[in-house]
């Protein structure tokens, strides 16, 4: 079965610094990969997704992620953190018409 | 479209009581999912439906949990009887396809005392 591992339950960055949230997946077949963001007391919102084609995927709010098959990774990045980026971020994987399986999440704090 | 609508937003109930959570998916979405979120276990899939038919309920923790989707615009998740360990945030999500991005509701925060 597919699975997702998010390295680091909490990441703290300074405002304006690079954001890097790590996600590694396990799958024996080509995966569909997703990043979601959850703000306090809200549902999950889709940031970006990789299905097929270009391995560098751009999403909302300046985030992007790169699918690296050789490393089984799908790390999320943003060049410059903003205070409004503080939230919980979830990586998810789906294969072979199966529902999304989510990682445990990474809480991003942005320090002024 | 108003998105996925869940009710109530918050529910506080006493142990042993019946709890019913409700969800209205986005019109035209053929898939509906119920997830539970806790600090310890993260986001867990409880059950999902395709065209109103339950496809996989292997994530439902116990027989105390049941879910229905009587039509394309409404689903319920029922817990009877409720227990304190059921306290969590329950999310409903819908999608056009199972591998597409899902649209989540705002969730129901359930507290069982």
Return the structural class of chain B: mainly beta
Straight-line distance between termini of chain B: 36 Å
Low-confidence stretches of chain A: none
Helix content of chain A: under 10%
Instruction: Specify Rg of chain B, calculated over alpha carbons.
Output: 13 Å
What does this structure look like?
The complex is a heterodimer of chains A (112) and B (113). Chain A has 112 residues and is mostly beta strands. In chain A, 0% of the residues lie in helices and 55% in strands. Chain A is built from no helices and eleven strands. Chain A has strands at residues 3-7, 10-14, 19-26, 32-38, 44-50, 56-58, 64-68, 73-78, 87-94, 101-102, 106-111. In chain A, the strands form two sheets. In chain A, strands 2, 4, 5, 9, 10 and 11 form a six-stranded mixed beta sheet that branches. Chain B has 113 residues and is mainly beta. Helices cover 0% and strands 55% of the residues of chain B. In chain B, a hairpin with a 2-residue loop joins β7 (65-71) and β8 (74-79). Chain B starts with a strand and ends with a strand. The relative contact order of chain B is 0.34. The A-B interface holds A 32, 34, 36, 41-46, 49, 51, 90, 94, 97-105 and B 4, 33, 35, 42-43, 45, 48, 56, 91, 93, 98-99, 101-107.
What labels would you give this structure?
heterodimer, A: mainly beta, six-stranded mixed beta sheet, globular, B: 113 residues, mainly beta, seven-stranded mixed beta sheet, four-stranded antiparallel beta sheet, 11 strands
